[in-house]
Known about the structure:
Strand order of the largest sheet: 3-2-1-4-5-8-9-10-11
Mean pLDDT: 97
Distance between the termini: 15 Å
Bound molecules: 3-hydroxy-5-(hydroxymethyl)-2-methylisonicotinaldehyde
Amino acid sequence: MKRILTIQDISCLGKCSLTVALPLLSALGHETVILPTAVLSTHTMFEGFTVKDLSDQLEPITKHWKDQGFKFDAIYTGYLGTEEEIETVKSIIKEFATDETLVFVDPAMADNGKLYPAFDLKYAKKNASLCGIADVIVPNITEASFMTGVEYKETYDENYVKTLLKALVDLGAKTAILTGVSLSEGKTGAMGLDSKTGEYFAYQNDRIPAAYHGTGDIFSSVVVGALLRGFSRYDSIKIAADYTAKTIDITRNNPEKPWYGVDFEATIPELVETVEKIK
Ligand code: PXL
């Protein structure tokens, strides 16, 4: 069994970050070690959420693991609250990552052309430096644009996506995967670039006319879980994009859906079946 360390916040209620990464990675068959960076009552789209920063716990916790001799097959980072926290996470990666470790970074900080309320451009640049030491990064177009300085566009063509991908690998990431990429009318998916071979890969499925919070975290968790099971990058983004789309579809047809997240729990059995079938 592969052991993965995921470093992100716990939004106790809200179906994002650790509360989706942990169940999805477990469902995909991985031992999942969590390093919570903060505890929030909910994610930050709720009004009046509480936050308890746990930054000062990251070093003692990881030191304990190091003293016990633990190693990780992958380190997967998501939403990180502050620039200082990103620096600490970089040190943890340097401490634990070997040539065999998959370092997977989701610089979750922005969407639809805007940074989340807690963040500014300096924070985005700090996230760019974390992406620089990663094997695989999975920003959306907004995050890529803030990190690289390439202008954000709502309507674009494949050349724009390639420009963004090249700028992302120039940050230092070995493979960049842009999410939420639409390469033709009515389609959406992801497109990636391998910095070593210069090879592009892309997967598109039908766009479902609905958007929900937390779907980026779901996509990332499934990509990293599939990569760790040995699937190719193309197969991993296909499995994750199809699972995310199916989940959005189930959610929009649920009259009792919560506003703050998707019904990813309902589609976990299908995800497991898919990866078993094409293994
Ligand atoms: O889904 C990304 C995410 C993770 N954690 C917290 C968030 C968000 C997005 O808003 O607020 C606390």
